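Researcher: I'd like a candidate sequence for this fold, 185 residues long. If you have to choose between options at a position, lean toward the conservative one.
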């Protein structure tokens, strides 16, 4: 994945991107001095918390942009475009905790029977993406540990995030992917 130095840089650039947008209404330009390893295309999520409660979380599950670009984009989206929350205000900016999760490429879990998911998924290591038709839900690896979910409830919550019934993970028409995340705070 990426070095701690690069990960910490992403946390700082996420903060800068949000503050710059708050002050100017414009997207932050990519600095010239960023670690070169952040040119790699990686999945990235930015999570904002306030008083230990979720305040915004948006990301790219797939490696579609260089990590530096993706982080700036999703930081702004987490602060201003997460439909679950009002836009972040300047007054609350200092009260936010910032987290950047860099993702491995999602891997389809191929199983002959849904019971095999219990052998393939590890709580605390794996995040999940569940897709059925046009519905798709994603939960980061840390969600399962933060909410003390077991594998079955993690699968169920990911289905609900996709807007499908909680037991859809048992359906053959449902694809389950796993990925790992490197978390920086």
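Model: Candidate sequence:
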């Amino acid at each position: 994945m990426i070095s701690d130095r690069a990960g910490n840089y992403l946390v700082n650039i996420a903060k800068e991107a949000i503050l710059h947008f708050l002050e100017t209404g414009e997207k932050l330009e990519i600095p010239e001095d960023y670690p070169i390893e952040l040119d790699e295309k990686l999945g990235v999520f930015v999570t904002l918390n306030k008083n230990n409660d979720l305040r915004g979380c948006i990301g790219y599950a797939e490696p579609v942009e260089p990590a530096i670009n993706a982080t700036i984009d999703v930081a702004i989206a987490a602060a201003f475009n997460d439909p679950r929350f009002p836009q972040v205000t300047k007054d609350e900016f200092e009260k936010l905790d910032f987290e950047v999760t860099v993702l491995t490429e999602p891997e389809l879990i191929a199983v002959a029977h849904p019971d095999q998911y219990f052998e393939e998924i590890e709580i605390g290591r794996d995040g999940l993406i569940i897709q059925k038709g046009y519905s798709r839900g994603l939960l980061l690896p840390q969600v399962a540990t933060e909410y003390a979910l077991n594998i079955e409830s993690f699968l169920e919550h990911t289905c609900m995030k996709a807007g499908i019934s909680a037991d859809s993970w048992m359906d053959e028409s449902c694809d389950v992917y796993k990925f790992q995340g490197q978390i920086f705070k």
